[in-house]
Design goal:
single chain, 161 residues, mainly beta, Jelly Rolls, six-stranded antiparallel sheet, 1 helix, 9% helix
Amino acid sequence: MHAEHSREHDPSARHCHRLARALAGRATPADAVRHRSYGQERHWRRYFGCPGNPDHGVVRRPNGSRPYTVALRIPAHTKIAAHTHRNNRVAVVILGVWFFGYGSSADETEVKALELGSFYTEPADAPHFALTQDEPATVYITGFGPTDTHYIDAAADPRRP
């Protein structure tokens, strides 16, 4: 196995990007842009859109009309309230256990424990929520931008003043 790790050689990442484009109905030859993301080169930044201020690394920014991937490192004991996004997304758990559920309220009895290698979808405008328990998790989320986040309960939005 090579020390070098790139999206071109990672079947799960390649599959994620193809699936995201297909879900968005936007798969075109123009999407075939070469891009590599080396884990050791990723610059993690604080992300203030989620409780606990997880770190995130952006492979491609989600603000343009193109495929993007955001890597989120979510601390242990973090709860993310029910929210929606305008676009379809696909996510892969790459570290830890991510507890994910669908619905307009964050009902912990409705989550499924997603371990390393698990993937799930976040359909456009479908409310969903997530949490971590005793260990942090890292998740790669892929979609076709631009995107947004709308919390079902505005008071639960960690970005509000």
